[in-house]
Amino acid sequence: MLWSTSLPLLGSSLLALATSALAVPQARADKHYAIMDNDWYTAGFVPYLVALDGDVEILGLASDTANSWQPQGALHAVATLEAGNLSCIPVYAGATWPLINTPHRFQAWEMIHGKLPWEGAFAPENKTFEAEGNDPTSGDPNRIVKEAFKEGFPKGRPENSTSAANFMVQMVHKYPGQVSIYSAGALTNVALAVRMDPQFASLAKDLVIMGGYVDLNMLEATGSIMLADYQSDINLMIDPEASKIALTADFPNITIAGNVANQVFPTQEFKEEVLSVPNPYSELFYKYYDLSFPFWDETAAALMVDPSLSINQTSVFLDVDTSYGSPNYGNIHVYQKALAPAGIREVNYVFEVEAEKLKQRIKHALQYPKSCADLA
């Protein structure tokens, strides 16, 4: 009798539970997630603002060694998130060291093959330069230069529960086919994830990178030092071996924003337009975004959000030169299918983007940035 009298109540309870479950937001199968890996700095927040503005849910930021050492970049990521009430996005520390390369090894290569106009984290240590507010290079990779935090030194710290590479692996298993891996610094963390889990790359949505310049050697030789700097490809050259691992892995798609990343430059007029809607990010952009350089990382981020931004691209097979004795160590080489060596893959190489559309995306993301209140 007890069971028979309870069954109607039980049925009602199950119905109520089922109804309430339907009311709970479920993870959409078409939801676009991203993990954004970069050598973060004071004005390096624009790519993640562009992603958020494009309705991409950022699962986390990862830090790597490229322009400066990874620990410094991780704290920049935390600091810039704090600046705009985005601390709900976690930061995961990546590998501090490339797979093989070191400052000494890099500088020895330069003695044989010539100096790079931009040496990133492997430039000789310069205490005077650091005291003037620049991020650290060479020397102790774990030292933090507080003078470089023009956005303010962070109160928080990166997550210590796991590494950047392991976090990437966890997330592609949680959201198979939905997570873009964005890399605008060295590819060390991505390569580690590829080696840690043979399913990692195939479970991601895609890999989008900033870097991978081609056919620019004459321009480097005959142009200014600044022009040569634009094509130095430090992101790949800091860790050539990781670059090869990542760019030959079986991601469903790989998009290369190399030459195209040099296409669109900021202007003073553009900065003033951005500042016409004041907020912490538009103000930091106005004060600290360098007009000398193009929208490198922002171009790659916008292509991740909206591939239709590309108006000229091609499919090519791509390899990375990992011969230390080569003057092209860390640079890419592209092939047509009939001439490609074994073990490499096809990628989407972007030549040109719709410039005005890119600038409008950047401007809107900076003028009306998302905050944790919007993401809840």
UniProtKB/TrEMBL annotation:
One record GO biological process: purine nucleoside catabolic process
Protein name per the record: Inosine/uridine-preferring nucleoside hydrolase domain-containing protein
Species per Swiss-Prot/TrEMBL record: Penicillium bovifimosum
Keywords linked to the UniProt accession: Glycosidase, Hydrolase, Signal
Domain Inosine/uridine-preferring nucleoside hydrolase: 35-358
Family per record: Belongs to the IUNH family.
Pfam families recorded: IU_nuc_hydro
Origin: domain of life: Eukaryota
Single GO MF annotation: purine nucleosidase activity
Signal peptide (from-to): 1-23
Any one of the GO CC terms: cytosol
